[in-house]
Write a structure and sequence with these properties.
This protein has about 325 residues and is an alpha/beta fold. It has an 8-stranded parallel beta barrel with strand order 1-2-3-4-5-6-8-9, surrounded by 6 helices. A 3-stranded antiparallel sheet has the order 7-11-10, covered by helices on one side. The two termini are about 20 Å apart. The protein has 2 domains: about 230 residues, Aldolase class I (TIM Barrel), CATH 3.20.20; about 80 residues, no CATH class.
Length: about 325
Amino acid sequence: MNKICKVFDVKYPIVAGGMVWCSGWRLAAAVCKAGGIGLIGAGSMTPEVLREHITKIKDACNSQEKGTWGVNIPLMKAGVEEIIEVVKEELPPVVFTSAGSPKKYTKTFQELGIKVAHVVSGSKFALKCVEAGVDAIVAEGFEAGGHNGREETTTMALIPQVADALRKAGADTPLIAAGGIASGRAMAAAFALGAVGVQVGTAFALAEESGACKEFKEYCTSLQEGDTMLVLKKLSPTRLVKNAFFDRIMEAENRGASAEELLGIIGAGRPKLGMFDGDLIEGELEIGQIVSQIKEIKTAERIINDMISEYNTIILEKFA
């Protein structure tokens, strides 16, 4: 059996990334019911809102589902300790952590019966995950949308390097590939490079069940190659769609603006303005490079089924 399916007790080794303003209980539940791992994105939630989403997904999903659900926690989030307390009380089956040290909470969660995965952007950090004893590692290339690692290593280069580092260390921690994955072809490529699971963001951000607004989803299906770029490298590198807000950030960065000035331009609630409220001009539109290949809005179930069907076809045609 596939290692990710075995560790997390799911039908398919496909994770829906926990994305701000996109990954609410509806999307996570739809992915769970379709056989994958559906994550609630706590990065844009208050503790009270997170508890509400957990309550709703508990009602929507039960032990008879094909997949499972969990919570994604960016450890750099302001007030993360309150989010941690909600998780400790509500006991989701799975937690994915990112943007911080895996050592801080992994054992705490595991002692409560929660499976833990941590997101990294390089081999050095993957080995720290092994030391922390995580149940799985997500290695994310810089094609991904939203916040990225500073190394700017592509998924194609990152996955085999992390897989080799884990093997040399004698670690059998299963590896999940992320960044630029939205198809069965990409899933087959990730597996060939050493991963045993994939984390998908952009495709699920544009799913019918995503919490993102209709305007954002429809606009993203019209994007072409080169319409996103990694910026905000003095703060936290973030992949954004090119719009008026993006242009202001680029102009400031090109003239050497300080981190403080960049924070002033961003202001409060910029991602919500774009992805949830639908301001396509002044909003912060976070999405991955693979968006140029997505031309329609699908259900989460169809996204998973299409990926598995294409993956099986590729394997039969190329490796039979």
